[in-house]
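Re: [help] complex structure
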Amino acid sequence: MNALRLAWLFLKVGVMNELQYRVNFFLQLLQSLIQVGTGLIMLSLVYSHTQELNGWTEAELLTLIGVQILLGGVIHTFIQPNMERLLEDVQQGTLDYALTKPEDAQVLVSVRQIRFWQLVEMVSGLVLVIVGLTRIEGSIGVLDALAFASSLMVGALLVYCFWLIVTTGAFWVVRMEHVLELFEGIYQTGRWPIGVYPGWLRYSVTFLVPVAFAVTVPAQALTSRLHLGTFLLSVGFMVVLFGFTRWFWRFGLRRYSGASA
Amino acid sequence: MSAIDSAPLPQAGRLRSFVDFYLTTMRTAVATQFQYRAANYFYMLGMVAEPVIYLVVWTTIADSNGGSVNGITAGEFAAYYIVWTLVRNMNIVFGAPFWEWRIREGQFSGQLLRPMHPIHFDIAYFAGWKVVVVVMWIPLAVVLSAIFHPTLSPTPLEVVVFLIAIWGAYLLRTAVQETIGMLNFWTTRGAAVFDLYMAMELLLSGRLVPLQLMPGWVQTLANFLPFKWTFGFPIEALVGNMSTEALLLGLGAQMLWIVGMFLVFRYTFRIAVRHYAAVGG
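Output below.
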């Protein structure tokens, strides 16, 4: 509960801070338009040469791309800014300021930063999801919608765990900033149905980097192809990974000796 | 450039010190970047994800279409996107966003004091970096080839043209990006223009898909823009079946673009420097 209160407080301060820079809204809007535009062009290119990709129709794939952009927005708004700041803090020795505060350090480093205008990305993803859904024949039920919402949350948590594990690695290897590029590159695999990838890559982007759970599973929920087993597996995986992340963070912290002070 | 050339070197020593500067900067880059092997590999692995995704998607379509898309087979797609990874590594340059950093952090003031245009450092340093990148790229190419079985049988001429064209791509992309970087002298939001540039390059260069897969009018448009000379042309030179005439014409066109864009850069740089007010130093 205390963690939630703290997160809410930081959120309010963060939003107020970001609202000062209003031109950034238009910049973000432009970036999102470009992102959506290139996504749509690639989609129409692919479907000008084929009817369906790995069993997914154009409308269904549009939904998938929407989910990928939506979750990408969540990552860019809430997760990535915090992890980038953590990396920077480790490099510069300013992490001590967070560690000496009388709150749980993991909670603190996870909620400090927010990039409010990236919300535009979330909205544009949501629009794509809705447009895609209206083109899919057959309607989605309440259960599908619930499964979608909960699996999206699970996905966001999985991505958070992955990011924190990698960032904790900075306690050993200080120069980790290229991990960002690595993640951004791998996250793009989520734009396509996981089935198109060869086995080794499919497993890597499912368990090593949880893109498949984070993007494909919610999209499967929307297109009525999610099995209960898959859903439970993703929840179970999230619980295990969350526990591991907690342990690994504390393990890393014990190893950390500070760089300044 | 007049401000920078104000203390000319004796003509005899000029060329020699110029060559010396390039060699030393390149050596420094090689030494520095080999220290950061792990960081460089992270970067490269993230970069490789992009073409692998395109490759897998088009291979899937080729397979479901009976082996090829627009006459391009799965093996040819593999060759295209594996060569893509080398070309991409080659055409990573001192980009426009770096100019923002260079100005904001006050680096630029110091560089203006040197008796040489700052672009020489950018070209030399990144050229040295390429040596490291290419060495590190080789195992990656071997792995990718083992997985995706590319069809590749270039003629000696194609190899020679390719080797020239990837350095041409490097120079052209440097000229284009440094020119866009000049925007940072007037605005702190150059990123908007830069994003537009990246999107156009993605679509019109052959980075996203081989240009043959694009509609005819897009291919025509691409012929009149600089983008394809930094991606599509070097790749096609090695992978495709271009005639000798087309290969040499392509090199010529690339050369023209390089000269043209560096002239544009030179002009915009002069205006930008006059506009510049120092931050720190």
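The mean pLDDT of chain A is 88.
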